């Protein structure tokens, strides 16, 4: 629901504010004109405009150092559930979430505390290694407890993500936090000068083969049928398909506005594109089967997933096209997110052609805060391949990473018409 994103009144800052299309505090009117336009008090603005207003309020005033207490939440921990094997020698562990308690989460100036029915837990910010959100589940990485999953069943998980990230920025000030996952990365952590050691000039991993072929034949059978159905149904226009090299490794780099982005790109490109998919998507047996045949592999995006990186290298090493969403997650309000440092590092270390891709219209199709699909025109523009100098990871500097990020971002913005 759109209320998961607009969790405060953009005018007065009240929480749990919408009742009968009015703010219960200041009585201003609310109306969702479309999935990307909202009217507050008769003023129609992009959803991103009102979301920025909410962020401008900052942290609420807390009593006795307590900023916010949750309603009932469910706490789960990570549990390993066997090995996943895919085409092209893809190898990964399958992780699930094991519920262990229900209780109340509290955000303090310097820590998180959980008071459950059977136990309690404290996560000091000094021991918190990463934080992000999937659906309505807040994920924090504790140095002491590992990944912790807090399912908000009665309120907005996005509200909690924003408040926790604001608190972490305040805790680490004056240091600047560049990103919060897969681990908290400070600007000072990026090297200004290349390291003396060279590192691996060419990234390579052992080749494996679990199936007789590198890719499933199923996509090539389904693609023509899917195009006939999807293109007129969702009014999809795709340009630049001839920019995709007919053979050899490459990286496809699109902006990420909808759950269906990878589906559209997968069905409309002549070659198979290998995308990472959230590990949690592999829980259901059918989804595991489908994603295996759809040329994808799992990633635990909330932590540094070494196996996912190795699988990405493996895909490129075998001459396939690797698809990466450089933002690391779908946008909430329709604007492009910062690019992940790890993605830029991988691109520079692999040294293969990179194709920027701009997707527009897909946010209205299916934004992150809803599971419903709306029939709207979607445009996909695939840019010409960009060649970056091959730089081994130890030799990469902050300038190298920022230069690659700025160039790719400007190209994707140009192709999608998206402004940040």
Mean pLDDT value: 92
The radius of gyration computed from the alpha-carbon positions, rounded to a whole number of angstroms, is 22 Å
Q: What is the molecular shape?
A: globular
**What is the H/E string?**
EEEEEHEEEEEEEHEEHEEHEHEHEHEHEH
CATH superfamily of the largest domain: Glycerol-3-phosphate (1)-acyltransferase
Assign the CATH architecture of the largest domain: 3-Layer(aba) Sandwich
- The level-1 CATH class of the largest domain: Alpha Beta
Query: Order of strands across the biggest sheet?
Result: 9-8-7-6-12-11-10
Q: Which structural category do the helix and sheet elements fall into?
A: alpha+beta
Protein architecture, described:
- It is a single chain.
- The chain is an alpha+beta fold and 420 residues long.
- The protein has three domains: 2-56, no CATH class; 66-189, Pleckstrin-homology domain (PH domain)/Phosphotyrosine-binding domain (PTB) (PH-domain like, Roll), CATH 2.30.29.30; 218-416, Glycerol-3-phosphate (1)-acyltransferase (3-Layer(aba) Sandwich).
- It is 25% helix and 29% strand.
- The protein contains nine helices and 21 strands.
- Strands 9-8-7-6-12-11-10 form a seven-stranded antiparallel sheet, with helices on one face. It has a seven-stranded mixed sheet with strand order 15-21-20-16-19-17-18, sandwiched between helices.
- It is globular.
- The two termini are 23 Å apart.
